[in-house]
């Protein structure tokens, strides 16, 4: 069985062969949620005018901060910074060729992935191939929500439900925070099977191609062996996505939150899955406004 229903450029196998993960609509790309949130299919980023086969940082308008990738691997040098350097790939409006080195995640899956039944975490995702550090693995794609809709959906979940909704906060160098809310519960891609780990082997990086809505791309944070389970840190701590306000809120409400136990098995496991209190309490970190959103 192909978990991606033939919609990715490589089939995604399922193990055990005779079991099927619970149904959802497969979409390799983000989709707009009905009646809320921005439309991720809108082309809104201008292209470069490079005539070369591959773009160079000194010339290309898509590369204002230097090279994004080297040999198809993400340039991790900037990850030491405490703000996100936006990554723009060359897009449909660019004049460069299809083989431009600044086109990586738009080429889709390059490693064979398998959705598999774990012992204690429900379904998970593993690689069937060795993955070198820095390589693109898959996207986390789903419905794009606005803040209000994300809060409403989070608040209607029961404590035992699997949570697929993710809030990504990009700290820009001018002090602004950009928020993106993605929900692959009903419509999404293979990324929805990625479990959390306190010692993850993937890192999530927002990447923009045609739209201002970022694609959430997962890259190998170290070399990964064939058959290893793939995971990332749901709190995004590696890239400082979690603002201080949210960290304080976690401490403040820590007792009351029905945190789920973490079964990542890492030596430094914190014992619980990270929890995004901002969506539960309806507190918009980007705008600094606080509102109480009722349950639907
Ligand atoms: C995005 S889903 C991951 C896929 C999910 N395991 C499934 O079966 O569809 C997130 C949910 O998986 C489970 N999960 C993920 N990581 C876990 C971990 N380290 N320990 C325990 N449960 C985990 C939790 O129920 C969590 O709400
Ligand atoms: Zn280019
Ligand atoms: Zn260019
Ligand atoms: Zn853990």
From TrEMBL:
User: What sequence ranges are listed for the domain SET?
Assistant: 111-235
Q: Which Gene3D superfamilies match?
A: SET domain
> Which UniProt keywords are present, listed alphabetically?
Chromatin regulator, Chromosome, Metal-binding, Methyltransferase, Nucleus, S-adenosyl-L-methionine, Transferase, Zinc
- Gene Ontology cellular component annotations, sorted alphabetically: chromosome; nucleus
Entry's Gene Ontology BP terms: methylation
Q: Which GO terms describe its molecular function?
A: histone H3K36 dimethyltransferase activity; zinc ion binding
The catalysed reaction is:
L-lysyl(36)-[histone H3] + 2 S-adenosyl-L-methionine = N(6),N(6)-dimethyl-L-lysyl(36)-[histone H3] + 2 S-adenosyl-L-homocysteine + 2 H(+)
Post-SET domain mapped to chain residues:
258-274
Localization (cell): Chromosome; Nucleus
Q: Where is the Pre-SET domain?
A: 46-108
Lineage top rank: taxon: Eukaryota
Entry EC no(s): 2.1.1.357
PANTHER family linked to this entry: HISTONE-LYSINE N-METHYLTRANSFERASE SET-23, HISTONE-LYSINE N-METHYLTRANSFERASE SUV39H
Q: What is this protein called?
A: Histone-lysine N-methyltransferase SETMAR
* Gene (UniProt): LOC129327508
